[in-house]
Amino acid sequence: MPSTPAEPSALVQRRQRQVQQRIVAAASDLFAARGFDAVSVTDIAARADVGRTTFFRYFGDKSEVVFAREQEMLEAIVDAAEQQRPTESPRSVREAVEQLAPIVLDLCGRATADPEDYARHVRLLEEHLELRARDALKLQQVADRLTEVLVGRGADAGVAVLAAQVALACYQTARRRAQAPGDLVGQTRAAFDQVLVLGAS
Amino acid sequence: MPSTPAEPSALVQRRQRQVQQRIVAAASDLFAARGFDAVSVTDIAARADVGRTTFFRYFGDKSEVVFAREQEMLEAIVDAAEQQRPTESPRSVREAVEQLAPIVLDLCGRATADPEDYARHVRLLEEHLELRARDALKLQQVADRLTEVLVGRGADAGVAVLAAQVALACYQTARRRAQAPGDLVGQTRAAFDQVLVLGAS
Fold it and tell me: What's the complex ipTM?
């Protein structure tokens, strides 16, 4: 076991996080002011007061900054799932969907915590086909992560895949139904409620 | 009303379709032989025995050729929906999902009609993140088209959105569960069957 104390590492992590957030904020401001295409990595780095090398330590390209939050969420899923870990393995698609609902609602809450920032993000996607495509792919990665969470809880793999895709369907529905960022959580909950009584009528 | 007879237009359409299919087949062969990145539009045009100008009359860029089939399907949805038009408007999410199932199964059948070609397409997507992203976006466009079909049949807009996303979830599940192209239709049907009894247990 290494004898290095935990604090320095935590401090480094916090500083890294601050730099990353500064880059994201700088990019978001510039995209909103000038449009995605007119902003370069150099512009973003300059506004965030970091070098280009630092930028590329955190992000592969300009588009990746747009999905920094989605990437964070992807990483947060396992933590969220751990915190809400139920005592029983999901035995049916219904139970699996029920177990995913609070995780997805938690993600929606985080995504819209800053409504103005979320609205800007949505506008950026609307304007760029390539960004919409990356967004659609990110959400499939979210679904695949949710599948892993269920399998980790002992669900059958086939059940887990379907439940995760249904959970994503609820989120996608809410995005289309929501009139404002503040509606997203409520609309996602409503979609889950509707899906969970699908075969009951 | 124009006096031009219908035949020439149909003939022109058939020729255009043949040219388009030749471009798609040429691109598919070249991508499989050399890899997506090593093939240029000029290469594809040469192999299909057409000029670059002709290529760009049919496709915006190299990636678009990969999704020619998806684009065709997108256009086929409205026709498929017309042919299978039920007499009643869907009144619930369940009825709406039931109405979408045969349309989606029909699309799956067409997609895998040439299993070897479908398998090549899947391999291409696996190798390229940008193509996976475009694929994910195309499928969202399919869902939005399915929503329109339901609204056209008199469904409530909110019901239609959820039903279309659930139908897409069944397809995405089948893609992950299917071991071979020949399994896709059966797996999609199985996913619909499971989803439609979600709240019954």
Answer: 0.86
